[in-house]
Write a structure and sequence with these properties.
Elements: H1 2-18, E1 22-24, E2 35-37, H2 45-53, E3 58-63, H3 70-78, E4 81-84, H4 92-103, E5 107-110, H5 124-132, E6 136-142, H6 147-151, E7 157-160, H7 174-195
Helix pairs in contact: 4-5
Length: 212
Amino acid sequence: MLYDFLVHLVNPLLTLFNGRPQIEHKDRLPEGNYIIVAPHRTWLDPVLLALAVYPKKFTFMAKEELFKGRFANWFLRKLGAFPVNRKNPGPSAIKTPVRLLKNSDRSTIIFPTGSRYSSKIKGGALIIAKMANVPLVPAVYQGPLKLSGIFKRQKRKISFGEPIYIDRKMRLTDENQQELERQMQTAFDQLDNELDPNYHYYMPEKPKNDDF
């Protein structure tokens, strides 16, 4: 209920202050559960991606540091988030989303670079998709990277790519993994170019206290 309540609270407010978002190719979203994979560009993009596909609901990976407070821990878990140690993920970083994708009606959002300060795709999403037998759906977000940009009415744009299906019989060798990662990156580049051929994401400088 908290998830639905916040959607019906946040969506009208975003529309009021920022206008309606431009959402492209929502028809490409498959039936059932799937994993949205996207470049991580702002702390806003998990929220904006989830709003774009509502009423489909999502679970989220989030760094464990966000769960330290009692209220934050309760709030994030109620929204479907689960903690992950980014430096030492452990088996739960794979098992938890696989279990949720198999045993619930919620899809998940994964940022395969793991950070806003990196462009290198990591393979965790591929393993999860293969084990859960769900497709990957590439997506990109263009728009304000800070909350202040929302109030300046910088346009929010989201586009979805064609699903990427992983054969359950395929071994995720280095070669196969690199090919799937290439497909993801190619999809990101194509979607960005379709939304705005002049768009360029300027990666922020990594904070000194972020050793991930």
